[in-house]
Amino acid sequence: MQFGGQRTDLDLKPIGKPDNILVKLTDDILPQPEAVLVHGITPQKTRTSGMSEAEFAKYLSGEVFTPDTIAVGYNNVRFDNKFIRFLFWRNFTDAYEWAWKNGCSTWDFLDVVRTCRALRPDGIKWPFASDGKPSNKLELLASVNKFKHDAHDALGDVKALVELARLIKSEQPKLFDYLLKLRSKDKVAPIVNSGQPFIYTSGRYPSEWQKTTVVAALSGVPERDAAFVYDLRIDPDQYKNASPEDLLKMWTYRPPRNMQPSGVQGAGEQAGAVHDAGYFPIKQLVFNRCPAVVADLRVLDKASQKRLGLHMEVINNHFKKLAKQPDLGERMVRAMELSDKKRQPKLVLDIASVDGALYEGFVNDADKIKMGAVRAADAETIADFEPGFSDERLNLLLPLYKGRNFPASLSADETKIWQDYKKARLDSRASQYQAKISELSASAGLSKPAKHLLTDLADWGQFVQTAGVGSVART
Hints:
- This protein is of the alpha+beta class.
- It folds into 3 domains: 2-165, Nucleotidyltransferase, domain 5; 184-342, PX Domain; 372-466, no CATH class.
- The protein has 17 helices and 9 strands.
- The strands form 3 sheets. The chain has a 5-stranded antiparallel sheet with strand order 8-7-6-5-9. The protein has a two-stranded antiparallel sheet with strand order 1-2. The protein has a two-stranded parallel sheet with strand order 3-4.
């Protein structure tokens, strides 16, 4: 519904005006009422002030992701980037090239912040959540470091992120530059595959550890673009006799959120303590997701070791033990193969599932050319355009693309497809949507602006349920 962005140079000085774009919500979507109460953007506002998804996809690919652009966000690798990929997929644009082609790349600043807090915290004020645990929320970092942040606004987040990046670049320039250079998988892979322990910061690790530990890659894993890494805080001896089936159970077990790993050894504890059953020390590290890794363990000075609860004699002892299990990586590979067999059957491709079918395979070159023709077509030329894709997913996507962006171009048959698709999609959510609006409307102390938002949402629900009913299709 909203996109915010600001281009800068490598010194984080702004280039040109920022982007603050609304994207029209199409009439096959019911937004989450709770979210609208937070950000205040109604579907009606996007329809009157926004651009269509097709227009927005063209703007992103043509004006934002220009050659040599580094797309930076806060948790963007796991969140925002997925939105971009599926936006491009729905709008006949390559879902991946924006992130790597023509010198482009992405960088996730959340793990930069986590690494800075863990290893080089000086010069920055660090907030804590209400429960006393360390927190790296952008709004809290903005508050304690005294720079403006319009929370729950895309452009507000962007401006705060630029200020935070400037602060870290100023106070910890070596770490900033080091991690910036590591955004490429070609830089990450040699560190991970070196056979030596390295520092790894990830949201997967407990906040008590500042999301940071020392890991080593497991051997015997043939994957070129990822590796299994072992958390060397944990004694690996307990996995000597673990079968692939055992490892799979541990891999997929999800402990209660308040359960934290125990058995992590202090300096005076005897080697061999076991960890809590809820914590599994093996994680997959994917090279092209901007992982925050540091090769040189000398970065862990005495102050850092104390702050993170890391004891190097324990780490070194566990690394030696891990070396005596050269087959642990192979057992993990077999565990993952078992996991693949237990997964849901391959997606049944139909009009209802095609929006989410991006990961069912790569589009071939011939179809990519035809995708370009779809993007180039206007409301008139697309009406009779029949590209005849070899990829059935794209044939199924076309009437949805036309319905969302050029509804007047739909034929009688396509109109029925579009209306049936919308009805099925909306009917599956309508009762829950209306119930949530009623529940929120009955809340005590609801403000007048919030009441107006909920009224608009109720009106939107009625509108989409009747949109297109009785319309005359193109003949």
